Amino acid sequence: MAEKAxxxxxxxxxxxxxxxxxxxxxxxxxxxxxxKDIDGSGTVSTVNDWRRPAAERAAAYVKQLSVHEKIAxxxxxxxxxxxxPATGPMAVKVENPVYDxxxxxxxxxxxxxxxxxxxxxxxxxxxxxxxFYRHVILRANATPTDLADWINQxxxxxxxxxxxxxxxxxxxxxxxxxxxxxxxxxxxxxxxxWPGTLGIAAAVKGTGRIDIIDKFADTVRRxxxxxxxxxxxxxxxxxxxxxxxxxxxxxxxxxxxxICEIMRHLIPGIQGKPKGVAKDGVAVTTKHxxxxxxxxxxxxxxxxxxxxxxxxxxxxxxxxxxxxxxxxVDCGTSSIMPYYSKPAAAKSAPQKDPAGNVIDxxxxxxxxxxYFIDTILRKQMGFTGYINSDxxxxxxxAWGVEMLxxxxxxxxxxxxxxxxxxxxxxxxxxxxxxxxxxxxxxxxTHPVPEGFTADQLVLTDxxxxxxxxxxxxxxxxxxMVDDPYRDPEExxxxxxxxxDWDEAAKVHRESVVLLKNDGTLPLTADKLAGKKVYAEAFxxxxxxxxxxxxxxxxxxxxxxxxxxxxxxxxxxLFLTPQSGAYFNxxxxxxxxxxxxxKTVHNVDEDGRPVAETHEETTVTGMGRIAEIAAAVxxxxxxxxxxLNVTLAWQPGNLESLSDALTAGFxxxxxxxxxxxxxxxxxxxxxxxxMPRGDEVLAVNAEGVCISPNDVPGFDKDQYMPDxxxxxxxxxxxxxxAAGNYYEYGFGLQY
Length: 750
Known about the structure:
This protein is α/β, with parallel strands linked by helices. 29% of the residues lie in helices and 15% in strands. The protein contains 22 helices and 23 strands. The strands form seven sheets. The chain has an eight-stranded parallel β-barrel. Helix 6 crosses helix 17 and helix 11 (406-417) packs across helix 12. The radius of gyration is 27 Å and the shape is globular. The model has no long low-confidence stretch (mean pLDDT 95).
């Protein structure tokens, strides 16, 4: 087996200057300094001179690249690691995989299909040398050593090309706990692991300590940089306003002010300096502009029913959705990802841009929407980074431009709207066609699609150079071009830092929210003396229920357990509901009730309720939970429950059975038990409002929700009918038996 690049690279640290590292690229010496021969010129050219500004180096390099090389830089898509064959419904099953001589690179050539579209995939070396792709998405839940080895190996191959551009391997976030879901939460548990982002927000809100974010961001930066991952599709600046939005769990909740404060610390912490990206920083892609929370009754834009952003409330875009993105811009976020969806003018109230103008809500997906990208984001908000589209916009999620062919979609996104890199598919053939049409008079003999102009639909040299210059600037800025290699042993040591894992564990405990307590908690040792405890975990998937139950019972060391609820003094019930599927529409609205076999209405193709019904389950065993509670209560026992909050669940079916109730956010069960057993006093506060019930989420025959989709839970009561309001003027938030409202910022202590 050939020696891997991790053992062959050489690094030189210039005194008071940049580090340069190489496997086979020549090093140049001048003025007592060392430079890397990036462009192959053999001189300390503008491109090779790390003393020059990143943007200047990028602009100079673009002039040297061929059209083929530049077009390859317009796309970023999934790639494979040899040791980590893809799993799950999106995985491509390869019967006879082919690896390179180091065993690190997957050289298999095959056809693939995901939710984003079909494509033919080359082997890694061919992809790098012939296709010249330099932007990939890594989803493998790999070890630090394997990440560093893979990135080192691909960069060694990149050095063998005439023009050297390193591999930019990006990933969704990896430092939060959660279920692995393709495209959302691809990896967790290897790097220092915090609770879900909602849990981080709950801890910040509860403790008032923004240094939680500082420590979190610093750990992300150090660990990712050590592994060689220098770009992250993270984090979400979206404000949750429709509780049925599947992506809720990846946000920091529903309060734009809290999200703004988090972004103000998170982005500089990860990128390594107050504005922009430092040499030891990780470039942040803030998503999903201008805010994905304004869903129409929860429909997700990965499928057709969710293609609209609805702003039914005047001023909602300006007041709730744009502010966190302005903070991201002010902090110099490296790139911004527009959402798939398009604005629904017919269903929206007037919305104003930051300059006070009424926005023309053109029905183009935001990656195609020039007004939002160029006028609002760049000219008015001052964004100077690059635009990274969401995955699949030129194929299956081309909302608003379905009438255009593939080449025209690329041209309209890059040339017209100002997108700099398109995610999901390596659509180089379409881009080449768009480029050719700009130079061969194509529209002199072919009709221009109605409503468009020819110059909007082609790919010009000016637009191509602009896009590639922006992504190259990021690479030069963070030192990837000069110093791409990382030591796997240093990566392992960085990720093994106990202080980071201890801080993460502390935030897990701080994220727990105490919602209800009749005095049962804390369940201290004296209360447990001579008592029996029944413990069970419930998921939608019974296989997961069995696994979680075994783990929960194993954590209750020293506690007398019973298999019979009828003889239990205390029952510990942990619920992890699940609703819908990320990439597929449900027959009706996403269900937020804690239910099993609940009959609900279907919706038509326009998202309106119809007479036909189907059954929904979010927790398998809800009937059994009621039986357990009844058995325990029959002899004076107490029921203590925990609800895992990934969506703004309707908690009534659980709260009514519970004497004490906590909420976690992909929080470790160990941390929840620390709170329940009195080892850690609860401090967390709800980062979003939990709805009262179906009545406050009801959708009328025209498809309009009784609570506005574009307003956070804490402000929905302003728009609710008086008939639903109680004596305190509240309608939306759930109110428990003790009279407490489960609204944003609520949380008990003891």
